[in-house]
Write a structure and sequence with these properties.
extended; EC 3.1.26.5; single chain; nuclease; mainly alpha; ribonuclease P activity
């Protein structure tokens, strides 16, 4: 490792540092990594970039991406735009890491619509990442463009990208006090998504949902944090919560599908033999019921520094 300077250096000073480094050929990469770790001032990083450009006649893709990462880390919007312009001229296509940085950096600025343009570029080459979509969704929500935010959200779901609770919370945070039946329908859709997938919001997300309900114009909602009784009844409104247990029919369906698709698969001999599996089923049925099943192999590997037998 190398300690970055605290102020911009002249060419001779950068050369001296490079020569004193034990592996001069990777000095610039190591220095930029240290700058990222130390969150160095942008003018220090820029002075190294300028020195490299003057010495070598150009700047490698890797160094530009590292400089871009520092700009994004510090929210340097104008620098992010400049680097993007340079990269588009120098390189015919960019890889996903650069796009991720550009979209994230521009989404958090007043140039957020450029992030949408970049998202469209990414779509032409690959499936955008969840982070790409969520950066643009948060930007649109922050600027009260809720129709656009939900359009991106549905597009994301259609590509089988699972949203984080962070972006779902953003919908409720930025919709607070806004009117519109369609908006309410979309937000109720998120609540149904949480319910259907048994996803439980954390405390700050719960608070966002509560505040949104209480902010609905013309509504008369009041939210309370409470503890549900073992019976499943809410102590505040006295309603009975839905039972999330599987019915016997659902359980049997799940059991059959796991045996057929997971254990048997297309070829029983790949993992076991029909006789061995039948013996296992007999063993289980003769010893029912079980309260807990422990996977011994996973337990033995849970703490890699200890002896496996000690873990068990």
């Amino acid at each position: 490792s190398v300690q970055p300077p605290e102020k911009p250096l002249q060419a001779e000073e950068w050369n001296r540092l490079r020569e004193s480094f034990q592996a001069p050929e990777i000095f610039e990469e190591v220095m930029f990594n240290s700058m990222l770790r130390c969150n160095s001032p942008i003018d220090v990083a820029k002075s190294l970039l300028t020195h490299v450009a003057k010495s070598n006649g150009d700047i490698t893709y890797n160094l530009l991406v590292k400089y871009l990462a520092l700009c994004v880390q510090q929210g340097q919007t104008s620098e992010i735009c400049d680097v993007y312009d340079i990269m588009k001229i120098r390189f015919r296509i960019l890889e996903s890491g650069a796009y991720n940085l550009l979209i994230r950096g521009l989404s958090n600025s007043d140039q957020w619509r450029k992030a949408l343009t970049l998202l469209e570029e990414v779509k032409k080459m690959m499936i955008p990442t969840r982070t790409n979509y969520e950066s643009c969704i948060k930007a649109a929500s922050h600027h009260k463009e809720m129709n656009l935010a939900f359009e991106l959200y549905h597009e994301m779901l259609a590509k089988d990208l699972v949203p984080t609770l962070d972006v779902l919370q953003a919908f409720f945070d930025f919709s607070r006090g806004m009117r519109g039946a369609e908006l309410q329908k979309e937000l109720f859709g998120i609540l149904l998504y949480l319910r259907d997938n048994q996803i439980y919001p954390h405390r700050t997300f719960m608070r966002s949902i509560k505040l949104w309900f209480e902010s609905i114009p013309g509504g008369n909602w009041r939210g309370h944090l409470t503890n549900i009784k073992d019976s499943g009844q809410c102590p505040v409104c006295n309603h009975q919560l839905e039972d999330s247990d599987l019915t016997e029919e659902e359980y049997n369906n799940l059991r059959e599908r796991i045996i057929r698709d997971v254990i048997h698969g297309t070829d029983t001999f790949r993992k076991t033999s029909p006789q061995e599996f039948e013996a296992f089923q007999t063993f289980v049925e003769n010893r029912l019921p079980f309260d807990i099943v422990i996977d011994g192999l996973n337990v033995s590997h849970i703490k890699p520094r200890k002896m496996q037998c000690e873990n068990v």
